[in-house]
């Protein structure tokens, strides 16, 4: 048998009731409980028992009736602790009830605190009842016999002051609670306890009331001798003499520090981020509102908002682990605090999203300068576990009146501007404008449509041939994905691949491309006996987060696709992101016979030294590189040295985007191995592949 406790439950969800009862039983309580669902039945039941607590759901219909219940208890002077059962998402909203007579708030998804709260409330209820009895008793008996020193109930902390507020008596409990000895207190003013939560005006009001002979009751935060504080639920009873004037006050305190601390923790958790200690989004929005209000009424303090996001943070979590990710977030938060002026309000909006609100700048331009300096500071190396980590962040700016005047709109606009900055170039700053909003809107729409595209057969694959210019053969193709949108027509992969990467759809899309390529290999090589290999482009999300090696082995085992008929293309920036992770994946692929091409070489860092570090089969020189090349130019020497270096390392070289015969001739003279481009053919549908090959060789025979 557990400790009996009587609870009146207002709830219409039987699962919740079951959870509550189970939680109480699991923690040694033996609940006597009754469940009611309407105000009428509640009103009838509340008088039935000496309830230890009322637990009330914050869902409708109870939610709108909570004030009615509280009013009823208050009117009827019924003292039963009320504990609300809130949904986690409404937690901060429901916190406001803590001020209107509710004793505590419990998260219905996390009932861990339930028993502790019930026990605490019952303890306090017992105290209050004892105290009430003591108070009534005191009041009556003291009035009658005018006795000054009184043996008071041990449970309470008691002090007596004279008409001027000088302490004339304290009991042992008072001395124990405050840390002062009795003799240190006698003769002092009550101000010795500093009552940290009340202003001078508050005290004037209290004095005015008790001087008139009225009993005062309230909560006071006092400071102990050692500087720590304690909360006391206090009743001050004034005693009037024959002439009607007060000659002494008796104060009865009850220590409620535990409850106050629990309350403070709850409030803190609801408004601050656990990891960094920064305000969270809810509190931040409230602060922006305040600043907007101040700006509207005084016309000073122009609110400018900065939204800051760490670039490629997901990869940090992925490669270094979540713990390192957390450390980096804490360091970022610290840097934001150090960098910002004292008027700055800094928040962590969630994940690697931070925001700053400033009100001391006069114009957007100053905001841009500020953001640029901030990003520079954030780019300083971060020491972590013996390494130095280099990170960049991107920043979006919005300001009052710039496309919006409400806190949430301002914040959303700053986030839009931040996404825009990232989409242009990571590590940069963008100021919000209307066009960005439209673009984001468009992208969201496209992204939504993309989710349906695979199932609706709108995605398909084109193939572009690659010509071996030394042997005059076509055996190698690149698979390029296509999307025919039902309304917009063809959408370029340059447009939707980044969206597919953001949304994770790139994973099923790449699997689809691989399966399609396998179909072509079956048709061309296995059925027709024409040797072919097809290259598939891999995004970082696929390369790092999926097991591409297993995908290919599976394709081989399931469909008999030879490894040598498959190639993968990765970009330089992908390869460089994390060499320790990249190299073994590439080696494994090469070991089984899959060729690996480094795509778009010449657009990124184009570091020749990386060519050496990576296990590769092919280097593909980007088309932009070709457009400027003329015989004898600086670019042509660079091209020659890339080709030579690749050859030295045993890689073959494909030049992309060959459109003119002159480019072809030049590349031949530079000993380039293969070319891809419109000169040979645009990407074509799968059914055109075999006719293309036949046509190519028959033309050759004729020549
Ligand atoms: P990429 O991998 O560099 O592909 C080559 C792009 O150049 C293709 O554009 C191709 O149509 C185009 N191209 C080929 N020859 C010429 C030429 O002579 N002149 C010009 N101006 N362009 C030429 P596309 O098909 O629009 O693809 C764009 C990019 O989208 C690709 O660039 C690739 O990065 C990405 N992509 C395409 N398919 C996939 C895929 O299945 N997965 C992933 N992850 N990315 C893909
Ligand atoms: Ca490619
Ligand atoms: Ca390319």
Automatic annotation (TrEMBL):
Protein name, per record: Diguanylate cyclase (GGDEF) domain protein
Residue ranges occupied by any EAL domain in the UniProt entry: 443-697
Domain of life: Bacteria
Domain GGDEF: 301-434
InterPro entries per UniProt: Biofilm_reg_signaling, CheY-like_superfamily, EAL_dom, EAL_sf, GGDEF_dom, Nucleotide_cyclase, PAC, PAS
NCBIfam families: GGDEF (TIGR00254), sensory_box (TIGR00229)
Domain PAS: 158-189
Pfam families associated with the record: EAL (PF00563), GGDEF (PF00990), PAS_9 (PF13426)
Domain called PAC: residue spans: 216-268
């Amino acid at each position: 048998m557990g400790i009996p406790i009587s609870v009146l439950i207002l709830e219409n969800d039987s699962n919740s009731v079951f959870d509550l009862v189970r939680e109480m039983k699991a923690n040694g309580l033996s609940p006597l409980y009754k469940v009611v669902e309407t105000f009428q039945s509640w009103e009838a039941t509340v008088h039935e028992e000496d309830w230890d607590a009322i637990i009330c759901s914050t869902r409708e219909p109870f939610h709108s009736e909570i004030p009615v219940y509280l009013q009823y208890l208050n009117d009827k002077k019924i003292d039963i602790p009320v504990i609300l059962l809130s949904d986690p998402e409404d937690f901060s909203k429901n916190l406001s009830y803590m001020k209107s007579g509710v004793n505590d708030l419990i998260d219905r998804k996390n009932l861990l605190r339930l028993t502790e709260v019930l026990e605490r409330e019952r303890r306090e209820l017992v105290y209050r009842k004892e105290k009430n009895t003591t108070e009534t008793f005191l009041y009556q008996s003291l009035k009658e016999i005018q006795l000054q020193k009184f043996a008071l109930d041990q449970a309470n902390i008691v002090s007596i002051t004279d008409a001027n507020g000088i302490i004339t008596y304290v009991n042992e409990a008072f001395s124990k609670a405050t840390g002062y000895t009795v003799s240190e207190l006698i003769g002092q003013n009550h101000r010795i306890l500093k009552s940290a939560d009340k202003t001078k005006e508050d005290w004037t009001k209290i004095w005015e009331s008790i001087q008139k002979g009225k009993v005062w009751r309230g909560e006071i935060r006092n400071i102990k001798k050692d500087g720590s504080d304690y909360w006391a639920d206090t009743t001050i009873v004034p005693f009037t003499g024959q002439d009607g004037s007060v000659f002494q006050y008796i104060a009865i305190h009850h220590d409620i520090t535990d409850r106050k601390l629990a309350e403070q923790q709850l409030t803190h958790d609801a408004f601050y981020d656990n990891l960094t200690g920064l305000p969270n989004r809810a509190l931040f929005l409230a602060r922006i509102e305040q600043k907007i209000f101040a700006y509207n009424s005084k016309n000073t303090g122009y609110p400018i908002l900065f939204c800051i996001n760490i670039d490629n943070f997901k990869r940090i979590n992925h490669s270094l682990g979540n713990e390192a990710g957390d450390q980096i977030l804490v360091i970022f938060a610290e840097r934001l605090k150090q960098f910002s002026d004292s008027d700055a309000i800094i928040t962590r909006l969630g994940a690697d999203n931070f925001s700053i609100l400033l009100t001391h700048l006069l114009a957007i331009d100053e905001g841009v300068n500020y953001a640029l300096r901030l990003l520079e500071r954030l780019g300083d190396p971060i020491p972590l576990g013996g390494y130095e980590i280099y990170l960049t962040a991107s920043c979006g700016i919005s300001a009052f009146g710039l496309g919006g005047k409400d806190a949430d709109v301002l914040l959303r606009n700053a986030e839009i501007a931040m996404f825009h900055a990232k989409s242009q170039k990571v590590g940069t700053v963008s100021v919000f404008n209307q066009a960005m909003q439209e673009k984001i809107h468009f992208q969201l729409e496209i992204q939504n449509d993309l989710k349906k595209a695979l199932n609706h057969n709108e995605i398909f694959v084109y193939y572009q041939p690659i010509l071996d210019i030394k042997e005059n053969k076509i055996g190698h193709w690149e698979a390029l994905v296509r999307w025919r949108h039902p309304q917009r027509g063809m959408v370029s992969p340059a447009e939707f691949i980044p969206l597919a990467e953001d949304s994770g759809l790139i994973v099923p899309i790449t699997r689809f491309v691989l399966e399609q390529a396998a179909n072509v290999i079956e048709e061309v090589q296995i059925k027709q006996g024409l040797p072919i290999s097809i290259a598939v482009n891999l995004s970082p999300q696929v390369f790092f987060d999926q097991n591409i090696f297993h995908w290919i082995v599976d394709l081989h085992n399931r469909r008999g696709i030879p490894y040598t008929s498959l190639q993968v293309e990765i970009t330089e920036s992908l390869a460089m992101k994390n060499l320790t992770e990249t190299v073994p994946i590439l080696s494994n692929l090469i070991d089984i016979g899959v060729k690996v091409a480094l795509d778009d070489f010449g657009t990124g860092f184009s570091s020749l030294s990386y060519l050496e570090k990576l296990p590769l089969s092919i280097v593909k020189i980007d088309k932009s590189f070709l457009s400027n090349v003329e015989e004898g130019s600086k670019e042509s020497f660079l091209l020659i040295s890339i080709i030579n270096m690749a050859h030295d390392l045993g890689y073959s070289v494909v030049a992309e985007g060959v459109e003119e015969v002159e480019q072809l001739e030049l590349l031949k003279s530079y000993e380039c191995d293969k070319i891809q481009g419109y000169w040979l053919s645009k990407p074509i549908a799968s059914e055109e592949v075999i006719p293309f090959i036949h046509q190519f060789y028959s033309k050759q025979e004729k020549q």
